[in-house]
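Appendix C. Worked example: Antitoxin
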Amino acid sequence: MTISEARGKLSALVDAAHREPVYLTRRDQAVAAIVDPEQLRHLLEDAEELADIRAVDAAWEGAEHLGEVPVPWDEVKRELGLA
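Step 2, the predicted output written as structure tokens:
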């Protein structure tokens, strides 16, 4: 739906967004989306989790590239006096 069309139908679009995302377009290109806030919260949480997973993967790859051996978690806790 174009932005111009959306202006007069905002209330209905918000209602529709509870079922599925509503995409707004300009010159036949999606430029924005209206989404249910709960769905957006889940998407942001999932994106953060994925970013964490990618960071861990990158750290493991970096350690392998440098020939480093990770320190076991139990050893770290012992050294910090947490075990």
